[in-house]
Amino acid sequence: MGSLLIKNARLILDDCIKDGAVLAEDGRIIRILDDDSGIHSDCVADLKGMYLSPGFVETHFHGGGMCDFSDGSDDAFLTAIDTFLSHGATTLFPTIIATTENEIWKAIRAFSEAVSIEGDKVTLPGLHLEGPYLSSAQKGSLPERFLRDPDKNEYKAIAESGVIRRWTLAPERSGSMELIDYLVSRSIVPSIGHSDAEYSCVLEAFRHGCHLITHLYSAMSTIVRRGGFRFPGIIESAFCIEGMDSEIIADGAHIPPELLRMVWRHIGKNQLRLTTDASRCAGSDVKEATIGSRENGTPIIVEDGVAKLLDRSAFGGSIATPDRLIRVMWKTAGVPLVDAVKMYTATPSRVFGLEKKGRLAEGMDADFVCFDESVSIRGVMTRSFRSGVFA
Ligand SMILES: [Zn+2]
Q1: Residue 162: helix, strand or coil by DSSP?
Q2: 97 alpha carbon to ligand 1 midpoint, in Å?
Q3: Which of 58, 173, 321, 330 gives the lowest tally of CB atoms within 10 Å of its CB?
């Protein structure tokens, strides 16, 4: 692969942005430089003052480019992954919505095929299953007919496929604590979402090793009153339980900018991750589609910059590509750029144990995204692949 010098860049580092250069060799960052004079390399990219960020780490998206992972074909995986790669995400967790057992298995097979084709180009740590052990009361846009209590035989067989990295579940469902114990024992990250749990149940799940909340504010419980007394839900748990990590859909539609800013202030850049939770509509301009598979999915329309159910009672995932999240957090919610980037790079890398990802620092993988002042992506480069040219 040889060496690569990326110079005249505005480097987005851990806690600051500064002008400089990066020298990479054989897919690894070997030096961060203030001054690149006298440095020789096989290849040079001059960014002419544009930003250089670590590649984005997208941990929850269902598709893109008009393909959904539940379609269950390797073509669907490749199209959606390439769509997200071209918008700056170099580490990706394809997510399967609650569906039939048959479709989950089809997606597992297609994912394994995609890894064998794309595994050198992008980083695909594993699949994220969003269900089917979720709450009907907080189904959001998920089809209720697929939601159920954990089934031990089913989840053990799925986990043994070896490709599941994260599993979103509702801890109040019967058998969920046993499921959490099992997932933790297999190093699969459990995550609370589409759930009506109260604080006491969330705390119990946390103590079993469930340290993550899926799309905070979307499809989850908040304070309820019984006999005058108030009982906190999942939203409050995200703020009160020390050590709990959260993700938030930062497309600017699911969560208004003032709330995005509040969550950043109070949960903070080290425990909050950005996600698109994108539907197949991301990276396309269609107005009608389905979420989930073409066969078993739910129809949606696209308006106001988001996908909605036909009766407009709920959102059906976002249409955001990765660059939009940075733009929304920085330009609309008023969060510093360095923090917005951290919540989409270093923090998700830490949560999922990806030690070589998410930072511009010596020894890290050479996954880069270059963008301009309006967060238009001008180039993406991964440790073994060059997509387009930095220009
Ligand atoms: Zn989702």
Answers
A1: coil
A2: 6
A3: 330
